[in-house]
Amino acid sequence: MKPESFLPDNYKFAEDEPFMNDRQLEYFRRKLLALKDEILVDNKETLADLANSTRNLPDVADRASEETDRAPELRTRTVSASWSPRSTRPCAGSSMASSAIAR
Q1: Which pLDDT tens digit goes with each residue over 1-11?
Q2: Which of 6, 14, 41, 50 is the one with CA 20 to 30 A from 63?
Q3: Coil, strand or helix: which one is 90?
Q4: What is the per-residue pLDDT across 20-56, written as a single tens digit (0 to 9) for each?
Q5: Domain residues for 24?
Q6: Is the dihedral of CA 83, 74, 32, 91 positive or negative?
């Protein structure tokens, strides 16, 4: 029996089941695929927003102002993608963790 076919949608870990058995592997596989899809959707939205809001401004100061206006959105999306959902600490590979270590 394939793991996909016997794992209920409301699956919860049991204390007495072996660690990382087929059911747990399938649970985490589904969870990671859902997170991946969410990140890809957010990425497409960000790229679409950037493409729609890009203007060719001849003045350097105007271009700098526009980039400054866009920075909070990009930072918010980057931070939300790099933080673990169950932790207040950034994930090891995130740029936030790297910059915190560099300080």
Answers
A1: 454 567 888 88
A2: 41
A3: strand
A4: 999 999 999 999 999 999 999 988 888 887 777 767 7
A5: 1-6+18-37
A6: negative
